[in-house]
Amino acid sequence: MVRKPEQANSISPAKAQATVRTLRHQIDKLDLQILKLINERAEMAGEIGSIKVENGEEVFAPAREDEVFANVLEAHSKHQGALDVGTVKAVFREIMSGSRALQKVLKVSYLGPEYTYSHLAAIEKFGQAVEFMPVGSIAAVFEEVNRGHADFGVVPVENSTDGRVADTLDMFLRMAQLIICAEIRLQVHHNLLAKCESKDIRRVYSKPQALSQCRNWLSKNVPYALLTEVSSTTTAAELAQREPGAAAVASRQAAVRYGLRTLCEDIQDCPDNETRFAVIGHQKSARTGKDKTTIMFRIPHAPGSLADVLDIFKQTKVNLTWIESFPSRLAKAEYIFFADFEGHKEDPKAARLLKALDDHCTEVLVFGSFPIAQVSG
User: Fold this and answer.
1) Are 371 and 181 in contact, with CB atoms under 8 Å apart?
2) Any idea which architecture 287-371 has in CATH?
3) Residue pair 137/167 in contact by the 8 Å Cβ criterion
4) What is the DSSP letter of 303?
């Protein structure tokens, strides 16, 4: 009897089991090699840490960590590795986080509770081998860092859908002594979470910004549900877990934490919804050649003042990447401006720009220069 092609290519159950055993044995050997290499890497990182301590340098080096990611992901792409890029980055993030913790366990404050997007952004930047300190407000994040209770804080600066985060900008003015040493760009994926079916939802909880970013989807898909604002997306998930007929707009991680079903994924109205976070602290970031600087400037309340400032950027050939007006607390009907531009403040071109701004503006504050971040998540 002539066998069919698929039969000819098939193997017996016994042979299949033998092949699996052989592959698993090879995996076990590779795991031991990986473990050996990870520990060797950690020992070298520890030696670097000792040298840093002797020279009074900081443990957290965002520019160096970005360089590691760039090198690894470039090699991964070149060799067409089987793993997803996000998986590779997550593995090396935790390796670096654990190695950093051998030198010092950093304390990182963020707008809590756990599994808010601020928490996810903090994990994205620092990994899990840190002491996370959730607090109840953006102002409290600044206070914790300013008082030395936390080494760093993670605060939202702007969202691609809703724009600036006013509480953060206000605190930068109140605590201008704090420095932005890194940024995080997190792609925000909102999900509808509940224990009930969609048709039974009568109330949807979430943070105001999250509800705003999903307003069209919610009005179309749960039109009879009452949208209710709460302090965080995690609080929303907790309420959805307790209350019959309630749902939450929150992260997938919050769904796992509170045992909720993910009824619909990625319900944000803008598919490229992204929030930019600043890492605040007391340390400065070294130049990398791919940096950004954040400033605040105050100008005379007169016609053409802003146009004159923008012309300075043009004349010095410095690319302005972000600008926001913000009401001044000093004078009624007066505005100040926050801005980002490409380059490190120590770059010659940036130094010329800042000198020209100082000459023209009533006040100029530099909040920090730091490596330009790529979108994560």
Assistant:
1) no
2) 2-Layer Sandwich (3.30)
3) yes
4) T
